[in-house]
Recover the amino acids of this structure.
């Protein structure tokens, strides 16, 4: 029977969204071929992560729980996953195309001599095998890759390309607790982890951006934006107008003459949505726009449009998010 | 392993597209009319890191090495112009059809034969973008592989890198030499090479070496190329609308499909609750807000 696996990623006690996308894809392939899906979890505290994986489509969840896996450890992950794959022989193993997923997949491929395709966007079933579609040459060309070696196919998938399925809260998964394989010798020593500070990181790396435009009203009101960003764990950016008015430094400008960003959440505060700005943020996964003008162009690309004064809404939002997230 | 003071920078020529797309050999490769060789920009970042290591006195010599056809005569000039001490080419036929694993294996075998201890390479090439070449180089050398490096430190036969992760996070890894370090693009500003410097570099010799490629494994994959077609995202729901809007959505990869938008009005408390509900539904907001 075909088996389609997803190597799950999680941070701060929650499964990352990209893992759910991959589970949706694994589920589609399993449905088409009469196969099963599984998720593989590495970490130090995993119990709370299992139910959401089941809701999004995992039939089985393999867990590797160990204090040494609190952060990505390539030696342990690759040895453990290699043993499990060799024993269970999945058809396809999907990894998120993140720094961790890319590293684990290519290491496993090199160690086991298994076929690997990086940064895929689609998968096709053909002649009993899986073909992996990946963009090359500046995304103008798609290469459909077919493996010539035995063993599972390994693939990383670009986040936010496939999209999410609706979760089914009634679904459950079989949990299989596995013992991590700790290699006697590893060539790479994991020394320390340095958490990023949303207030100072480059906007292009930010997962959540709270962006300010003329509608914020004044430099003093920027404090509301900063407080909200701190409460939600986001970085502050803005339009050219906000930068020209001196409310933000130049490196925080988003748009045609600033930075192009693709965060998973973009909250536009008092931004009308001129083309010069939207060119730099239109590919954000989720866009929430707050503006008093119901005809503001930003509403056309927003997932949620809030027709209200940002100065009235932000204090309430800040308070609610502080309650939700425990941030100050 | 004792470090001999020489750092290798593994570089590869990239394929740049020109003109209308066309394919040959039943889609196995791009037609010559629509491709030209170009410098792989990702390798420039690796070169700059090597230069900084030499300037700090950690390494004595920088060697650029590539596996490329002889026709690409001036390909390594840019790296010589940037400051490489020598350039080497493993000669391969243009129609050799090396895949990424074979390219990395070839580079690794050559560097190993020369006793190389530290190799820097671009994390992902501009054309293929798979990130396989540095890992395959490390495997062929029997070396440690350190990926996504944005800072490289070298001390007493050990290398330490700061890895760039998502959301501004960093992770520090260390390894003994030999090691292959894949450098993250954008981690450093590569230096500018003047036209005069480039012309002078073009006069410098490029050493050629040959490796017996017959014993190498065959290609791990076959591939079929086609013009890219955007895959519509599942979150896009086509709730009616004009044909022009639907076409625009398809062409833009789904962004215009967000026209199922909800415009909400009401008291701030209600709107705040709506925002939180949306973020929970989309798995954007986790328990601690990340």
């Amino acid at each position: 029977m075909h088996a389609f696996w997803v190597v799950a990623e999680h941070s701060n006690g929650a499964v990352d969204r990209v893992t759910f996308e991959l589970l949706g894809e694994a589920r589609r392939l399993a449905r088409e071929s009469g196969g099963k899906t599984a998720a593989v979890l590495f970490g130090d505290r995993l119990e709370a992560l299992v139910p959401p994986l089941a809701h999004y489509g995992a039939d089985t969840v393999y867990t590797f729980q160990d204090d040494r896996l609190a952060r990505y450890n390539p030696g342990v992950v690759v040895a453990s996953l290699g043993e499990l794959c060799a024993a269970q022989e999945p058809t396809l193993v999907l990894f998120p195309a993140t720094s961790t997923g890319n590293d684990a997949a290519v290491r496993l491929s090199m160690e086991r001599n298994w076929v690997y395709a990086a940064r895929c966007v689609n998968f096709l079933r053909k002649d009993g095998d899986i073909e992996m579609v990946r963009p090359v040459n500046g995304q103008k060309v798609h290469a459909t890759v077919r493996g010539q070696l035995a063993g599972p196919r390994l693939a990383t998938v670009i986040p936010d390309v496939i999209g999410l399925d609706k979760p089914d809260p009634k679904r459950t998964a079989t949990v299989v607790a596995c013992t991590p394989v700790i290699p006697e010798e590893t060539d790479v020593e994991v020394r320390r982890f340095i958490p990023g500070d949303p207030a100072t990181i480059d906007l292009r790396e930010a997962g959540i951006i709270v962006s300010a435009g003329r509608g914020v009203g004044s430099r003093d009101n920027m404090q509301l934006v900063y407080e909200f960003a701190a409460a939600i764990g986001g970085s502050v950016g803005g339009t050219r107008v906000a930068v020209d008015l001196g409310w933000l430094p130049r490196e925080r400008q988003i748009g045609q003459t600033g930075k192009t960003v693709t965060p998973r959440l973009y909250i536009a505060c008092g931004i009308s949505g001129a083309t010069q700005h939207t060119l730099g943020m239109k590919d954000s996964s989720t866009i929430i726009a707050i503006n008093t003008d119901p005809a503001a162009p930003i509403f056309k690309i927003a997932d949620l449009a809030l027709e209200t004064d940002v100065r009235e809404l932000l204090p309430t939002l800040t308070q609610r998010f502080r309650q939700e997230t425990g941030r100050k | 392993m004792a470090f001999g003071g020489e750092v290798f920078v593994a570089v590869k020529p990239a394929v740049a597209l020109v003109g209308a797309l066309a394919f040959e050999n039943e889609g196995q490769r791009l037609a010559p009319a629509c491709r030209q060789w170009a410098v792989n920009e990702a390798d420039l970042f690796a070169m700059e890191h090597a230069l900084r290591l030499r300037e700090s006195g950690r390494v004595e010599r920088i060697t650029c090495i590539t596996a490329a056809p002889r026709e690409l005569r001036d390909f390594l000039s840019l790296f010589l112009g940037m400051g490489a001490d020598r350039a080497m080419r493993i000669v391969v036929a243009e129609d050799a059809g090396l895949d990424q694993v074979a390219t990395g294996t070839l580079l690794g075998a050559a560097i190993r034969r020369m006793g190389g201890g530290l190799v820097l390479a671009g994390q992902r090439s501009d054309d293929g973008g798979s990130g396989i070449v540095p890992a395959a180089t490390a495997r062929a050398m029997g070396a440690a592989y350190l990926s996504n490096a944005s800072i490289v430190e070298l001390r007493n036969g050990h290398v330490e890198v700061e890895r760039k992760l998502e959301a501004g996070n960093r992770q520090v890894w260390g390894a003994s030499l030999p090691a292959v370090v894949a450098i993250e693009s954008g981690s450093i500003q590569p230096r500018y090479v003047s036209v005069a410097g480039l012309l002078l570099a073009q006069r410098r010799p490029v050493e050629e070496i040959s490796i017996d490629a017959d014993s190498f494994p065959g290609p791990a994959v076959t591939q079929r190329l086609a013009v890219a077609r955007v895959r519509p995202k599942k979150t896009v729901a086509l709730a009616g609308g004009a044909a022009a809007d639907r076409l625009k959505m398809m062409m833009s990869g789904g962004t215009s499909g967000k026209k199922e938008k909800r415009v909400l009005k009401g008291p701030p408390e209600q709107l705040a609750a709506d925002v939180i509900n949306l973020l929970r539904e989309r798995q954007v907001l986790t328990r601690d807000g990340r």
Q: What stands out?
A: Chain A touches chain B through 102 residues (CB under 8 Å).
